[in-house]
Write a structure and sequence with these properties.
Layout: E1 2-3, E2 50-51, E3 57-58, E4 68-70, E5 73-85, E6 93-98, E7 107-110, E8 114-121, E9 130-132, E10 153-154, E11 157-159, E12 165-170, H1 177-183, E13 187-192, H2 196-200, E14 209-216, H3 229-232, E15 241-243, E16 246-247, E17 253-257, E18 261-268, E19 274-279, E20 285-290, E21 293-301, E22 303-306, E23 311-317, E24 322-329, E25 338-347, E26 372-381, E27 384-387, E28 400-404, E29 408-415, E30 421-425, E31 430-435, E32 447-448, E33 450-453, E34 458-464, E35 475-479, H4 482-486, E36 490-496
Parallel strand pairs: 2-25, 3-17, 5-8, 7-13, 14-18, 17-25, 26-29, 28-36
Antiparallel strand pairs: 1-22, 4-5, 5-6, 8-10, 8-11, 9-12, 12-13, 14-15, 15-16, 18-23, 19-22, 19-24, 20-21, 20-23, 24-25, 26-27, 29-34, 30-33, 30-35, 31-32, 31-34, 35-36
């Protein structure tokens, strides 16, 4: 989910549960009194002191992966491989990445283009590569059915139907997603288009269009990165916060803005924790996009809250240096907490940017009067996480949602646990119809593919299943707290011809 904790415009977000009071270690708490779902909530930690350091390290910008174009198709080459990196400063960890030891390069796709990805698995286990948020055929989606073995190369190809937005890519194999993503297999995708909004916004990668990948991980003193319940409940853990692969626990990264207006693309690639981004000086951020593209107009917000898997975009026009802060809140049994000064942006520019467009996008709100209604229940049985009563630890065991091409549906997604969940839908974007019984406002009127559901909470979402149908390959819907996904909170979505 991406949303502002308090819209600076004063528009308000109603009296829902998605407010700053959840930033102090209350991520797992729901409407009811905090009750253990298993033993999980006993381990929640409180947001601690501000953690700041000298801005002595320059922000690393992930490499922009160059594709090769031939006969109308742009080909990108990726290799999932192991390596070593410093997750804890000064300590070597065994990690993984795409084309490198940790994380992966950024890909740029252009709406309307055909892309081909040659992805080689150099790990010692099966993997997939899911294009999170992309509207592509299920056979190319990178879900569990697309798993490929060590030594093999998978080559999905498709036409980019998405408009301008920030996506990301990561593994999605059954039972190993948390381990592989946590070790570092993740990268950003930028989709470009020829809209007037895109032409008016900063777009020079690494100069005034800056990717920010935030991860809160868990590691012991030897640098071993934890990914499952056993690991998270072991002793002597630290919960480092990384920005583009660099530990910012005691270091504030530095970026010199050579343009007066800079665009930042945020991704919370954490396995479970919630990250809220804000300005250290209390100023506002000008949010321009949610998960699935531009807002109708730029919105002045005090902060942007990102549940695991969510993205957002904002711009800043600077005359003086500004420090960005990340407020980390535990999303799972244990995790990070506290406020980190993670990036100081110092302007060194003399240009005067044009005013932002008054309109960025046209979003027609669904009239759901005639939409087919469906109920999705997120549940728990012991250590198993459930969707509609089933633990989706195998394809055969998953609950299956069946729909048809062009179907219009409204889903009531209810969290029957007292745990935090990050609901993610593959294939198509959705609109929020209600959040815990209240109508969405502000940036929540944008398009999403990932949204927070607090313990005991409910969201209503609406979507239309366009373009793609298949009677063999399925999409997924699941919790993007990766451990919950691996523990069974995943169902399949089959879209067939009418």
């Amino acid at each position: 989910m991406t949303h502002t904790t308090q819209p600076a415009s004063g528009a308000g977000r109603g009296k829902g549960m998605h407010r700053r009071k959840f930033l102090g270690g209350m991520a797992g708490a729901g409407f009811a009194a905090v009750a253990a779902g298993g033993a999980a909530l006993a381990y929640l930690t409180d947001a601690g002191q501000n953690r700041a350091g000298a801005a002595s390290t320059t922000l690393t910008i992930p490499e922009l992966l160059e594709g090769t174009t031939s006969d109308g198709t742009t080909t990108f080459t990726l290799e999932a491989k192991t390596g070593t990196s410093e997750v804890l400063s000064g300590v070597t960890s065994t990690t993984a990445g795409y084309n490198q030891s940790f994380l992966g390069p950024t890909m740029k796709w252009t709406s309307g283009d055909t892309v081909l990805l040659n992805i080689t698995n150099s790990l010692d286990a099966d993997t997939t590569v899911h294009f999170h948020g992309a509207h592509i055929p299920p056979k190319m989606d990178g879900g569990p059915q697309n798993a490929f073995a060590a030594g093999e190369t998978w080559s999905p190809t498709f036409t980019v139907k998405d408009e301008a937005k920030t996506l990301w890519y990561h593994p999605h194999a059954l039972g190993t997603t948390a381990e592989q993503v946590t070790r570092g297999l993740a990268g950003m995708i930028i989709v470009e288009d020829d809209s007037d909004a895109s032409a008016a916004l900063p777009s020079t990668y690494g100069t005034d269009d800056i990717p920010i990948i935030l991860q809160c991980l868990a590691a012991d003193s030897s640098g071993d990165v934890k990914y499952d319940l056993t690991g998270y409940l072991s002793g002597g853990l630290s919960y480092p916060l990384l920005c583009n692969g660099t530990n910012v626990d005691a270091t504030t990264l530095a970026f010199t803005a050579t343009k007066s207006r800079t665009r930042f693309r945020l991704l919370n690639a954490s396995p479970s924790d919630i990250i809220t981004v804000q300005r250290g000086d209390g100023g506002t951020l000008t949010q321009i996009a949610t998960d699935q593209g531009y807002l109708t107009e730029a919105a002045e917000v005090e902060s942007i809250r990102l549940v695991a898997g969510a993205r957002a975009e904002f711009v800043m026009d600077l005359s003086d240096a500004v420090t960005l802060q990340a407020v980390v809140t535990t999303g799972w049994v244990r995790g990070g907490s506290g406020t980190y000064d993670f990036l100081t942006v110092t302007p060194d520019a003399s240009d005067t940017p044009d005013a932002l467009p008054s309109s960025l996008n046209t979003i027609t709100r669904y009239d759901t009067t005639d939409f087919a209604a469906r109920t999705i229940t997120l549940g728990q049985s012991g250590a198993s996480m459930l969707i509609n009563g089933s633990a989706g630890t195998t394809m055969a065991a998953m609950a299956m949602i069946s729909t048809t091409l062009d179907a219009e549906e409204i889903w009531t997604v209810t969290n029957s646990t007292q745990l935090e969940h990050s609901f993610h839908l593959h294939d198509v974007p959705f609109q929020l119809i209600s959040i815990n019984g209240e109508e969405p406002t502000g940036v929540d009127l944008g398009w999403f593919d990932t949204y927070e559901i607090v313990g005991g909470g409910t969201i209503k979402i609406a979507m239309q299943f366009t373009d793609f149908a298949d009677d063999t390959y399925m999409y997924m819907l699941h919790c993007h707290l990766l451990q919950h996904e691996d523990e069974g909170m995943m169902a399949s979505l089959m879209v067939t011809e009418s």
